[in-house]
Automatic annotation (TrEMBL):
Has a glutathione-disulfide oxidoreductase activity in the presence of NADPH and glutathione reductase. Reduces low molecular weight disulfides and proteins. It comes from Duganella margarita. This is Glutaredoxin. Keywords: Cytoplasm, Electron transport, Redox-active center, Transport. Gene3D superfamilies: Glutaredoxin. The gene is grxC. Residues 4-63 form the Glutaredoxin domain. Belongs to the glutaredoxin family. GO terms for molecular function: electron transfer activity; glutathione disulfide oxidoreductase activity. One of its GO terms (biological process) is cell redox homeostasis.
């Protein structure tokens, strides 16, 4: 299965909602705290081109933030995107 990585911050409500959506789909995630770790934040910005959390990756593919994840799910493309990783 494709590895899912999510960059988060402890005080981020959107991060919590994204993790809940992924867990509801039965997807295990690797969570990286970009809110407390400047090196992780820099890594996230380099990989995604964005500064805000959450940033979600299916394998090497950047999905985006929470809104992007919801849009992918509502369009019915979640499973295909996860498989393509």
């Amino acid at each position: 299965m494709t590895q899912v990585t999510i960059y988060t911050s402890p005080i981020c409500g959107y991060c919590t909602m994204a993790k809940r959506l992924l867990a509801g789909k039965g997807v295990a995630v690797t969570e990286i705290d970009a809110g407390s770790d400047p090196q992780a934040l820099q890594e996230m910005m380099t990989r995604s081109g964005r500064r805000t959390v959450p940033q979600i990756f299916f394998g090497a593919r950047h999905i985006g933030g929470y809104d992007d994840l919801v849009k992918l799910d509502r369009a019915g493309d979640f499973d295909a995107a996860l498989a393509a990783g």
